[in-house]
Amino acid sequence: MSDDGIIHSFLDIDYLAYQPASCSLSSTRYGYNPSPAKAEPAASAAAIRVPVERILRRIASNMASHEVAPVDKLQNESYGWHFQFLTILGLSISTACFACGFISDMTNSSSFFTLKNYLALVAAPIEIVISILYWGLRAIDDNLVVPPDLPFPPFLYDLGFHLVPAIVLTLDSLLLSPPWPSMPMNPQAPLIMLATSTSIAFAYWYWIELCYSHNGFYPYPIFGILTTLQRVGLFAISGATMWVAGGALRAAYAYVNGFETVEELEKVKRAHKMATDGKWE
């Protein structure tokens, strides 16, 4: 699709009379080279139209360049697509979490609010682990997470992918979540959570090995460097780190919001039910 085709799919310009007479894309990857055009009488329309079209042309140019990029083509056509990357999986869960929160706020739905809170219990520890692993490995060697022949994303994008989700989900868990019991309702809950976290880590290992069997490459270079035993250690440590992150969030929640017992929460739940049913016990 041409740049103009992409632009017109984004913006209906029938309501604006201004149309640049000589605005052409340059041969460079990102920019374009507009030549001066005669000022139009409808200055207000032009003032709106020109910046918008320039932005859209820049977007179109970037989209066109990425459509033919060999790396993107390789990932787009590979087994597992971009969901081979732990970062993308984490962002997908985080997006689902905040989408449920947004729907809950817009519709006042308790069901979506509950779903959002349970998704956050998984999303927050995963994003924390992603941040620790990504920045920790980069501190050792950048080539452990990105092949040496590929560029890193711009720094702000990098923060948006690998740090901001962990920070936002942590703040959401501490400040915007309902009162969770500070002590587990099940005495075996810590062991259950450890087993769950480790299972998630090894499920991802199985997934990338499945993708490797089809594609012949790993999403992260470190997986090709480590031996099988070392990979077992890496994923075991990742699962344990996720478990520790979940426990740390629970402890931080108790510190910020106060100590919540199961009995107190049951009283609140019972009072809410009686108020909803209009029947007092």
Automatic annotation (TrEMBL):
One GO CC annotation: membrane
Transmembrane annotation, as ranges: 81-103, 115-135, 155-177, 189-208, 220-245
Keyword Glycosyltransferase: no
Protein localization: Endomembrane system
A Pfam family of this chain: Far-17a_AIG1
Keyword terms: Membrane, Transmembrane, Transmembrane helix
Membrane-protein topology: Multi-pass membrane protein
Keyword ATP-binding carried by entry: no
Main location group: membrane
InterPro entries reported in the protein's UniProt record: ADTRP_AIG1 (IPR006838)
Protein name from the UniProt record: Integral membrane protein
Species assigned in the record: Leptosphaeria maculans (strain JN3 / isolate v23.1.3 / race Av1-4-5-6-7-8) (Blackleg fungus)
